[in-house]
Amino acid sequence: MSSGLMVAIVVVAVVVAVLGALAGRRHQQQHPSLSRRFGPEYERTLARHGGDTAAAERELTGRVERHRELTLTPLSSAERARAEQQWAQVKARFVDDPPQALAEADALLARVARDRGYPDSDVDAQIDMVSVDHGEHVESYRALHAIARPDAAGRTAPDTEEQRAALVRARGLFVALVGADGEPERVPAEALTKARVPAPRQAR
Predict the structure, then answer these.
(1) pLDDT (tens digit per residue) in 2-27
(2) For range 110-126, the mean pLDDT
């Protein structure tokens, strides 16, 4: 092999290595940006694509682009107060009827998201758009929606503890959507006891 050919091979190898490094650097610059924006939602999307980073980031980038077409507005003081009152009613209802409370919480989240300007024609599309702003909370919306409709998801009804946990987690997204202050609420622990243990019958 001539020295000229060897030099050419080395030059080509160096060029390929440099181009690969530049491409990797561009990819690394995009990856942290999407990862920071979506938080846990980034990892969930990556897992759903079988670890294919390019496919996951294409999906998330598409969400960001569609999100730019939305016109989001904060709730008015009256709307915020009404939503908080409705959530308090959901919390109170959980003591006597956990499934109904979860169904109402699911509907309330969808309604508040719609009032903020997120799409409401399809729950999956709404969740995708909400994830752009609230990636750290949006999985709780999916979980609540699935638990609130176990038959539609092809699963058995969850136990009361699972229902309570879903409602507690969903409070974080509710707070973020309505712009309310304060710590996430706790569903009363006595709700579990009341749901599991029938009330004693009065003697006649």
Answers:
(1) 665 565 565 455 545 545 544 444 44
(2) 94
Diameter over CA atoms, the chain: 109
Q: What confidence tier does 32 reach under pLDDT thresholds 50, 70, 90?
A: confident
* Cα(200)–Cα(204) distance, integer angstroms: 12
The residue behind tokens 């938080």 is 39
| Beta-carbon count within 10 A of 179 CB | 12
User: Looking up tokens 């000229």, which residue turns up?
Assistant: 4
Could you tell me the end-to-end alpha-carbon distance of the chain, in angstroms, rounded to an integer? 107
**pLDDT higher than threshold 70 for residue 192:** no
Exposed / middle / buried, residue 68 (Cβ in 10 Å: 0-12, 13-18, 19+)? exposed
Torsion sign, CA atoms 73, 78, 84, 85: negative
Instruction: Give the three-state DSSP class for 166.
Output: helix
The Cα–Cα gap between 43 and 51 comes to: 9
Radius of gyration of the chain (CA): 24
Residues 189 and 86: their CA atoms lie apart, in Å, by 20
For residues 74-99, average pLDDT? 96
Residue 86, phi then psi, degrees to nearest 5: -65, -35
Q: Quick check: 42 pLDDT over 70? A: yes
Residue type, 174: F
Q: How many residues does the chain have?
A: 204
